[in-house]
Design a protein that fits this description.
Pfam family, one: DUF892
CATH topology: Ferritin
Protein name: Ferritin-like domain-containing protein
CATH architecture: Up-down Bundle
Number of helices: 5
Strand content: under 5%
CATH class: Mainly Alpha
CATH superfamily: Ferritin, core subunit, four-helix bundle
Largest sheet: none
Order of helices and strands: HHHHH
Number of strands: 0
Structural class: mainly alpha
Distance between the termini: 51 Å
Radius of gyration: 18 Å
Helix content: over 70%
Organism: Microvirga aerilata
């Protein structure tokens, strides 16, 4: 079975949209648990706004391609995002685990958008490439911001935990 580049492009758009939806769900779940980490919560709140903009860009690209998001895939990835954040919440070091996962996730998103750009070029679907490049830049910035809070959040976690205080929530 042969698949054309446009079909690959549409699938990549849907997959990237699902990935962003999953990330949004995880961040929204996590931010409510960060009252002891205001800088981390502020970072997540900023990125939630950015992610919503990225989802709109992807939806515009899907609409321009005459497609819509896949309801089944969206539901599955949304549930996966909630489950991932909830599972981390069961452990004492929830905040640190979510921080590590978020850092790695930024690089997954960077890779996905770079791949999407290449696929769009191969399919001749270039109208939204600048929007995808903007998303790459936003994800790179978010990765740098997360990298910048790893040590302070970890110090705060240790401080709270060793003082007998609850470090998570």
């Amino acid at each position: 079975m042969t698949t054309d580049a446009r079909s690959i492009y549409v699938t990549a758009l849907r997959n990237t949209h699902a990935m962003e939806q999953q990330g949004l769900q995880q961040m929204e779940t996590q931010v409510s648990r960060l009252e002891r980490y205001p800088d981390y919560a502020a970072l997540l709140n900023r990125h939630i706004g950015t992610t919503r903009q990225q989802l709109q860009r992807l939806e515009q690209a899907l609409g321009a391609a005459g497609e819509s998001i896949s309801g089944i895939k969206e539901t599955v990835t949304s549930v996966a995002g909630t489950v991932g954040a909830t599972v981390h919440g069961m452990f004492q070091d929830e905040t640190l685990k979510n921080l590590y996962a978020g850092y790695a996730y930024q690089y997954e998103q960077i890779g996905a958008y770079r791949s999407l750009i290449t696929i769009a070029e191969a399919a001749g679907e270039t109208a939204h490439i600048s929007a995808f490049r903007q998303s790459v830049q936003e994800e790179e910035q978010a990765a740098q911001e997360v990298a910048g809070i790893i040590e302070p959040v970890t110090r705060r976690y240790v401080e709270l935990t060793t003082s007998g205080d609850k470090a998570d929530r």
